[in-house]
Structure formats: C-alpha cells, structure tokens
Amino acid sequence: MMAEGLPHAALGHIEQLLNSYRFDRHQNLALMYGAHDPGCCGHSNRTLLLTMLGHLDQAEAESAKALALSERVGHEPSVAHTCQFRAEYDVIMNRPEKAKTYLERCISLSQKYSLAAYENAADLMQGFVRVVEGDVETGVRQAEAALETLKSVPTRKFHLPIRMSIVGRTKAAAGDVEGALAIFESALDATSSTGEIWYEPETLRLKAEMLLALPEPRTSEAELCLAAAISSAQKQDAKFWELRAATVLAGLWARQGRRAEARDLLAPVFGWFTEGSDTADLKAAAALLTELR
Predict the structure, then answer these.
(1) Angle 37-43-47 (CA atoms, 0-180°, nearest 5)?
(2) How far apart (Å, rounded) are the C-alpha atoms in residues 54 and 50?
(3) CA torsion sign, 224 to 157 to 106 to 55?
(4) Cα separation of 264 and 246, whole Å?
(5) How far, in Å, CA of 258 to CA of 215, rounded?
(6) Is 266 exposed, middle or buried (0-12, 13-18, 19+ CB in 10 A)?
(7) pLDDT in tens, 149-195
(8) According to DSSP H, which parts of 93-199 are helical?
C-alpha cells in the first residue's frame, strides 16, 4: 500500500502489526519470515510513511524505536535490515553524515551473514555518501555498479525508483547534471513500470532541479515537473513531498518576479506543518516566505 501511494491505509496495517507484536512471543519470527524481525520492519516502514506525510518529529522517534528494538531482539540480520532503512531515511532527509555509520554497520553485517540484498542497497547509498564527502570518482562508480547489480536481480525491484533516484543524486552531487537528469527520467519510467509511486513526487522534483541546473535551463519543462510533483504529492497526502516541490517552484516564481503567486503557493503547505521546525526543509521554506513578504 505504501508503494501504491496509499500511506494512510499502509499506516493502518502497520499499526495493527505493532499493536499485535509481542517481543517475548514474536522475536523468533525473524528466523521464519524474510530474515528480519517484523516489529523492526514495521517501525522502519512507519518511519518512511510518517516522513512523507509530514509528521517529521514522529518519524524521527519511530526510527529510534526501530533501532532500539533491533538491538533488543539481538538478531543481527534484523539489525542490518534496520540500519539499511535508517540510512535510507537519513538520505531522504539530506543527512549523509548520519547515514554513513548505519551503512557501514549494515554492510559489515550483510557480508558476515551473506545478506546480498541488504548489502546491495547499502552499497548504493554508500556511493552517494562518498561523493558528498569528496571521493567523487569512487563514489559514482560504486553507486552505478550497485544499481546495475540491483537491476540485474528480478527479486530486487523493491524500492527501485528511490534507489535509482539516489544514484541520480549521486551524479548531481558529482556535478554531472545531464547524467543525473537521465537517471531521474529512468527512475520515473521505473515508477510507471513497477507501480511504486510513493517516491514519484520527489523524483519529479529532483528532475526539475536538474532541468533548472542545465547550462541552458529548461524552465518551462521544470515548471511542469514541479506542478506534477505537487499534484502527485497531494493525491497521496504526502505533505513533506509537497512542501519540497512547492519550495522549489515558489523559488523559481520569485526569481521570475511572480512573488504573490509564490507566496500563495508555499504559505498554505508550510502553515500546515506542526513538526520538524528544526529540519533544513522547514527552515528553507520559512526563509523563502520571509523574503516574499
């Protein structure tokens, strides 16, 4: 349901799982289903759902619960799985320095227990972190190789669009705007082919940012992408995705002298938020609205 862009319905099912989960009775389920603890998985997925819905403080607390439970369960593949999800959450929140530690632990445990799928996803994200840290050539090569491995295994299509988008972000961080743009376009194709649309607004926003970063910006196309991102986010009630796309579009309109339109677009979605005031995204939106007064 999350993949299908139905976050509220997905949350309902996860809450049923977590309400039924009992550590003393269910911790052994990790040995039977999916090689990871269902409680850890529930908290980790709830983190991503709360993030996209805009409940940012709750998402942070939920991720902490997932990590704490994984340590309590003491099942190291579950720890690896939870660290992978935590790293993905930190990458989404533009905190690569925090993702780094979780990726290292995930990769170490994945190698120890031959957890190829977890290692593959973590390896891809680690490439992004390396580029941000300045190891550009190695990081790009690592992320690209991990994506090719992921795409070659039919059973690893879960979260394919976001993982492709992370490779696009890797190329963008390396200064390869056209390469990043091509990856984001491919990620949107994967969104259509897999039906996994929960991250579609973000991929559209990222594509728009690359269109604007070209030597000859394709402004009209970028504006259409941002409008599509906002529409997709609104259909999912994904307030955080909507805020990010609205901030970019409002910034574009402000530079074009369309200040009233920019303010009218951004102010309502920013005003909805009651959590996450210390995040970079809320601060950026607030700063832009101050400029637009």
Answers:
(1) 140
(2) 6
(3) positive
(4) 10
(5) 23
(6) buried
(7) 999 998 888 899 999 999 999 999 999 999 999 999 999 999 999 99
(8) 96-113, 116-133, 136-152, 160-173, 177-194
Q: Which of 180, 160, 182 is nearest to 168 (CA)?
A: 180
Say whether pTM exceeds 0.85.
yes
Whether the per-residue pLDDT at 204 is higher than 70: the answer is: yes
CB under 8 Å to 132, separation ≥6 — which residues?
96, 139, 173
Cα→Cα distances 267→34, 236, 241, 257, 271, Å: 43, 20, 15, 17, 6
Task: Please list, in sequence order, all residues whose beta carbon lies within 8 angstroms of the beta carbon of residue 112, skipping any fewer than 6 positions away.
Answer: 76
Q: Amino acid identity of 4?
A: E
Q: Can you tell me which residue has the tokens 């530690």?
A: 101
Cβ atoms within 10 Å, residue 269:
22
What's the rounded Cα separation, in Å, for the pair 55 and 58? 6
Chain center to CA of 250: 22
Position 267: which residue type?
A
Structure tokens at 272: 């909805």
CA distance linking residue 99 with residue 93, whole number of Å? 10
**Cα-trace Rg, the chain:** 19
Residue 31 token pair: 């040995």
- Cα angle at 21 between 18 and 27, to 5 degrees? 130
Of 119, 47, 130, whose CA–CA distance to 81 is shortest? 119
